[in-house]
Amino acid sequence: MPKHKMILSTTEPNNNIPLIRIIQDDKNSQIFEAEIVEEGQLLNFDSKVVFFNAQIGPYKVRDKVETIYYDSSRVSYTLIDPFLQKVGEFEAWFSFADSEEPESDLFSTMCFNYRVLPGIRKNIWEGNYFWDLQELVEYYKRYKTLIAGIVDNKDFSDLIDKIAEIDGRTNRLDNFATATKTEAEQGMAADKFMTPQRVTQQTDARLATDEEAKLGVNNTKLMTPETTKAFYDSNMVTKHFSTGDLSEVKSGDIYLTRIGDTVSLSGSVLTLDNADASNNKIFTPITFPEGFRPTTDVAVSHYVPAMFDVFFGSVTSSGTLKLKVAMNNSHNHNITASWTTADEFPR
């Protein structure tokens, strides 16, 4: 799975992290691995609960991080569907808390950005009905506890008032849940749960037929046109270069994704044990094949965690990846880049 490695600070902007591009259909396949620092030093967050957060439009999406390396101040999170629910560019960050209670964060990293590119599915429709139901459930839990306390203390003076208050909440729930057949057919009860017959008819009328979906010829109906799927199937390709494909390195993984005429690069390589950083020495792990070469020489974001710094990196128009040896001996070099290509699309 593609792994996007980065260093995130709790005190300084993350200006050296390039925009991360992700296809909307890539749920459970994209990993954000972050080393957490504060004032340029590894941050000790032992025993803290870690969350991955993103701002999706007006809503904040949040999920608990399960893979944490406390000894090396690293976290690893595999992106799930809610973070890919809309196409666009979004801010994300990791936060740290003592518990899993909502709004209990003690501190967080500065934000970085990722962009969701359109896949072959529709956006998830947004709504707040589940929040309304959850609110009602919380009311029942709270009043159940209150009445249990009254019974335990044998003090029934407030019981009538509490029951009356619960009746009011119950009526509210009934109003949501008990539409009559006539109301459902006519769609005339605005405060009740139902699928009005006329809404069902309208929805059916908005769904594309199999033939329309194959041809993609109706622009007023809901569908994933077969031609759209075919376009993305034929215009997106991913290449993985592992240690056996690389040279002048001890190990590494490099990923290239081409969508249309845009190529995205991400990866990490480990330099040789005898690496020599003198005289601005350059090493060339790979020359990318035809189909992925840039139209002109492009810069590579080349970060060395052991140095907390970025160094020279480029991909030439002939596809050769060039990186500066940052330190003597073996060290990790994290790389990301994107460029346009005029090469024929690889099939």
Please provide a written account of the structure.
This protein has 347 residues and is of the alpha+beta class. The protein has three domains: 3-117, Sandwich (Immunoglobulin-like); 129-224, no CATH class; 235-340, Sandwich (Immunoglobulin-like), CATH 2.60.40. The protein is built from six helices and 21 strands. Strands 2, 5, 6, 9, 10 and 11 form a six-stranded mixed β-sheet that branches. It has a six-stranded antiparallel β-sheet with strand order 12-13-14-21-17-18. A hairpin with a 7-residue loop joins strand 9 (88-97) and strand 10. Helix 1 packs antiparallel against helix 2. The chain starts with a strand and ends in a 7-residue tail after the last strand. InterPro entries: BppU_N (IPR018913). Pfam families: BppU_N.
Helix coverage percent: 10-25%
Radius of gyration: 27 Å
List SSEs in N-to-C order.
EEEEEEEEEEEHHHHHHEEEEEEEEEE
Structurally, the number of domains stands at 3
| CATH C-level of the largest domain | Mainly Beta
Q: Multimeric state of these chains? A: single chain
Any descriptors?
alpha+beta, six-stranded antiparallel sheet, 22% helix, 347 residues, 34% strand, Immunoglobulin-like, 21 strands, six-stranded mixed sheet
